[in-house]
Amino acid sequence: MAVLRTILTIVFILICIALVVLVLMQEGKSAGLGAISGAAETYWGKNKGRSMEGTLVKITKILAAAFIILAAVLNINRF
Predict the structure, then answer these.
(1) Burial of 39 (C-beta count, 10 Å sphere; 0-12/13-18/19+)
(2) What is the mean pLDDT of residues 31-46?
(3) Contact status, residue 15 vs residue 71, Cβ threshold 8 Å
(4) Maximum CA pair distance of the chain?
């Protein structure tokens, strides 16, 4: 049981590091002056799911869910 806990802790730390990196790689919601003038409805704005930004958002959501699940699993037998 201790080996499984150690492996899950290592995976948890790797997910934490990956989440930090992915969040830092993403652009802000109001990045660029195009958002002010209304030019956000370009080709990349409409197809955000297929762009690099859309992929980063999807991976961030998956890693955040894994983070929450692993945090709960690692904390089950704590008390």
Answers:
(1) exposed
(2) 54
(3) no
(4) 57
